[in-house]
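Cytochrome b561 domain-containing protein: structure, please.
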Amino acid sequence: MPGSTAVVATLGVTGSPLVQPYYLRDRSSNGVIKDDSRLILPTRMNATYDGTLKTVFMAFRVDFASSKIVPNYLLYAAGQASGDGSIINYHRTRSLEEMQANSQFPLGGAVGESAVSKLEKRVKTHGALQVFGWGVLLPIGAIVARYAREYDPAWFYIHATFQLIGFIFIIAGVATGVALAKDVEVPGLNGHKGLGLFLLILAILQVLAVVFRPKKDSNTRKYWNWYHWWVGRLALFLACINVFVGLNLSNGERKLRVSYIVLLAFELVAFAILETIYWVRWNRAPANSSGVRWNRASTERGFQMSDY
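Here you go.
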């Protein structure tokens, strides 16, 4: 599995057991690299060969909190080695439960298990903060800003409140993500971090745009409105992509992916229904003397955004 770390125990040419960690960069033979830096071992690895069972036994402890790996899964495989120990023939994988149930391969305590649990909780916390910020609060704020303008000025304060709380969740999610990036190393993480940084910049620009927005009667106000509208929608779209990237990197459970897809589908359906109602009402609204239609449910004209 590309991106995994493997610890291999076999017999050397002298008949002594050998133990070596490898980094599996890709599926090619050149992608199997000897690498001792990804695993932090509190004690040295031990291995012994049982001539009666013709089996190499090994024991080691891993400090998952300090290692550059994401310990999502632990796999065990056993098989025959070649005569010189340089090649491992086909071997079958056993689950942790099989290993524990088989007295021939007794397991010690799962050293570092608490560290694994803590790391998984940190990953889930990071994802939950970002999904709730980008996937729930900000879309609700956007819906209020576009479709609830007849409740003036309440819509503006509701919109600003949702966006501010969403921004706080995003900052908290970024903070947990930065801390996680120091402890894990998986293929594709740089892309996730880069897109996350770009999204953070967009979020900050949106906040600054509100602080320094032109006055309502300014000639530049309509350009500010367009900027605020399009940058906000671009950020929400890219955030959806980055959430899926994060789920893929963390080997997210299927139910998490399905839950997020259901959330997106619900929001898209809500947007579609509200947008249809919006344009139906806009087309039915009478035009003024200049031929401009004003929607009673909105204080905007055409695609122009907030007057606040």
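Notes: The chain has six helices and seven strands.
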